[in-house]
Design goal:
50% strand, single chain, globular, mainly beta, 9 strands
Length: 111
C-alpha cells in the first residue's frame, strides 16, 4: 500500500511546495490522500516531461499550481495555467505535457 501524506480519519495541513519538486530524472508524484471513493495526488513535471495518451475509469480534476500544462483531451489541445481547474469525465482519452517546470493536483473520484 502506498504511503499517503494524510490519513482519512485525521485533520491536518501541509505545505505543498516541498512535497513535489520537478526532477530531470522523471515525473514526481506524491499521494496526498487515498480513500475508498478516490484519491488526491500531487504531480511535478520538469520541462519537456509528459504522460502519453491514456484513459482513467474515474472522474478527474486537474488543478494547476505552477507552470503551464498542455493537455490533449480526446484529440483536442488545451492549455492550463496556475489557478485553472479542469474536469475530465471517466474514460476520456487524454495526454499531459509540460514545457516548463509545473506542478498540479490530480483528484480522482469514483464514478
Amino acid at each position: 500500500m502506498a504511503f499517503s501524506v494524510f490519513q482519512p480519519d485525521q485533520c491536518a495541513s501541509v505545505p505543498l511546495a516541498p512535497l513535489a519538486t520537478p526532477s530531470t530524472a522523471g515525473i514526481t508524484s506524491r499521494t496526498l490522500l487515498k480513500t475508498n471513493g478516490g484519491k488526491a495526488v500531487l504531480f511535478a513535471f520538469d520541462a519537456g516531461q509528459e504522460l502519453t495518451e491514456h484513459t482513467n475509469p474515474n472522474h478527474a480534476l486537474i488543478q494547476v499550481l505552477t507552470g503551464t500544462l498542455h493537455i490533449t483531451l480526446d484529440g483536442r489541445p488545451q492549455t492550463l495555467g496556475p489557478g485553472e481547474l479542469l474536469h475530465m469525465p471517466p474514460q476520456l482519452p487524454h495526454a499531459v505535457r509540460a514545457d516548463e517546470p509545473s506542478t498540479f493536483l490530480l483528484t480522482l473520484l469514483a464514478p
